[in-house]
Amino acid sequence: MKHETLKINEEEKQWSSWSKADDIAHNRKRIMDAGQVNKMYFDIYEIPPGKANWPLHFHTCNEEIFYILEGHGEVITESEVLKVKPGDVLRFPAGEKGVHQLKNTSDSETLKYLDIGTTNLPDVVFMPADKKVELFGGKSGQDKMWSYSEL
User: What pTM was computed for the model?
Assistant: First the structure.
């Protein structure tokens, strides 16, 4: 890949939706991925009222940074539950200490945030509450290669 300036307009990207059970749902715009910027991705997320973004999880090889744009919620971490509001920045390191789940605690507002992270591959993702492990690989880092339940 050639390393050069890249300009992308968010309006040119489409939303995708994902949900699991009744308590997890999000809309996401993948603005930049590893194929475009080499070692990072950049997403915009919207979490509907009362939902969480993903199951509680941590990455073994990658870290993430969230910047809260709109709405209010809470993030479950390794040792505490933190209230979040617009302007808050959250960093989740690779490994167990980076375990996290972001929840929208509002009954009516959407929680919107930027998600910026590294794309070291392969990445093993542990979901302790679900007793599940997933291995991600491929060019975008979003290609699930393997999944195992019942840790």
Answer: 0.89
Residues 6+ apart with CB under 8 A from 124: 59, 60, 61, 133, 134, 135, 136
C-alpha distances (whole Å) from 123 to each of 48, 57, 59, 87, 112 are: 27, 12, 7, 29, 25
pLDDT one-digit tens code per residue, 60-80: 999 999 999 999 999 999 999
Phi, psi of 54 (to 5 degrees): -145, 165
Q: How far apart are CA 129 and CA 33, in angstroms?
A: 28
C-beta separation of 8 from 75 below 8 A = no
Residues near 139 by Cβ (< 8 Å), separated by ≥ 6? Answer: 34, 35
Interatomic CA distance for residues 149 and 131, integer angstroms: 6
Residue 115 CA neighbour count, 13 Å, CB half: 23
* Three-class SS of 14-26: CCEEEEECCCEEE
